[in-house]
Recover the amino acids of this structure.
């Protein structure tokens, strides 16, 4: 091969290389670049991590809230009023003391037992809201019908705190006509005190029962 032939072959080779070097790289629409798959999978992983973190945080917050809210709450039946661990019902139907106690027992309780000054004030306020012009009396679960002068509650516990109407000399066991005396107690919402009255008189009354424990 002579010199001219070598030159021609070399020229053609250089032209082929030059044209291929400047030729644009064309990719089909569905043909992916090498780094695209890795980039997309990394993004999905990060999103999943963020979502999982949010779910964990939300779960932690809910557990804290439920731990705070989950406690014992004292609940009462409909139309009963709650005061601490007791439920009270003010019954406006007038009955004798024994009839009132029977009614309270049928409702799952007893006539009201006033153990503290706070309970006394609470029931007085409720009774005062229901009283008429002259109707101030509500039976409570206190009597001395077993032995005169020894007042005890319907659950047989002795009387420790008293709220007698002292200015009215209560209890005075006042007797009139053929009555046996005054062996049952009422809460007098007018004087915010107790009075002893005949057990056969008909008055409104207050029932009580234990509140129901509800866990939420």
């Amino acid at each position: 091969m002579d010199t001219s032939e070598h030159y021609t072959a070399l020229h053609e080779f250089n032209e082929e290389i030059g044209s291929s070097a400047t030729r644009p790289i064309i990719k089909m629409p569905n043909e992916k670049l090498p780094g695209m798959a890795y980039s997309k999978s990394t993004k999905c992983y990060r999103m999943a991590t963020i979502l999982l973190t949010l779910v964990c945080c939300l779960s932690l917050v809910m557990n804290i809230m439920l731990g705070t809210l989950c406690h014992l709450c004292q609940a009462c039946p409909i139309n009963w009023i709650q005061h601490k661990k007791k439920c009270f019902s003010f019954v406006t139907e007038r009955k004798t003391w024994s009839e009132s106690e029977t009614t309270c027992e049928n409702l799952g309780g007893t006539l009201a037992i006033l153990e503290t000054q706070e309970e006394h004030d609470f029931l007085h306020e409720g009774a005062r809201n229901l009283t008429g012009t002259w109707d101030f009396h509500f039976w409570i679960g206190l009597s001395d019908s077993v032995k005169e002068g020894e007042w005890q509650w319907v659950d047989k516990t002795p009387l420790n705190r008293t709220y007698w109407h002292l200015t009215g000399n209560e209890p005075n066991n006042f007797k009139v006509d053929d009555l046996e005396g005054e062996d049952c107690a009422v809460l007098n919402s007018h004087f915010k005190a107790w009075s002893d009255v005949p057990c056969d008189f008909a008055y409104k009354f207050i029932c009580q029962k234990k509140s129901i424990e509800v866990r939420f």
